[in-house]
Amino acid sequence: MTFRGTFDLTLDAKNRLTIPTRYRAAFADGVVLAAGLEDCVAIWRPEDYDAWTAAALEGHSPLSPEFRKLKRHFTANSHPTELDAAGRVMVPRFLLESGKLTKDVSVVGAGECLEIWDRAAWAAYNGEVLANVSEIAAGLHARAS
Fold it and tell me: For a 10 Å CB count at each end of the chain, is N or C smaller?
């Protein structure tokens, strides 16, 4: 499944986020909330998070300090959970802090996962990307050649 779109939402008083209706069925078997590589929190299906972290670590020696640090990052900064009956997920405080999230958030499709961004931070980040998308695409194309 590919997650697409941008949804402006609000965390409730208990730090619960309502997952967009169109994506709730994708999380029927569980959810992994994880610190993003940018200032955000990713919402993964468990099997996709496991595959993504395994791919990130693949080919690197488990004896190296960098491997162990990254593996710890992936495991210590993630939280397995489930949607409640109303299609919500509670975001733990450590992830709120990691993602620098406030009450007003944007949930954005990031392909293999959704991401929760502070709404103002998302607007700034996405505005910069939109202003530079041609250069970003050209740079990636040049490196792939």
Answer: C
Instruction: Specify the amino acid at residue 24.
Output: R
Beta strand extents in 1-97 (DSSP E only)? 6-10, 16-18, 31-35, 41-44, 78-81, 88-90
d(CA 67, CA 94): 23
The rounded distance, in Å, linking the Cα atoms of 114 and 86 is 18
CA distance 15 to 13: 6
The bridge status of strand 104-109 relative to strand 6-10 is: antiparallel
User: Is the pLDDT score of 9 beyond 90?
Assistant: yes
Confidence tier at 57 by pLDDT (50, 70, 90): very high
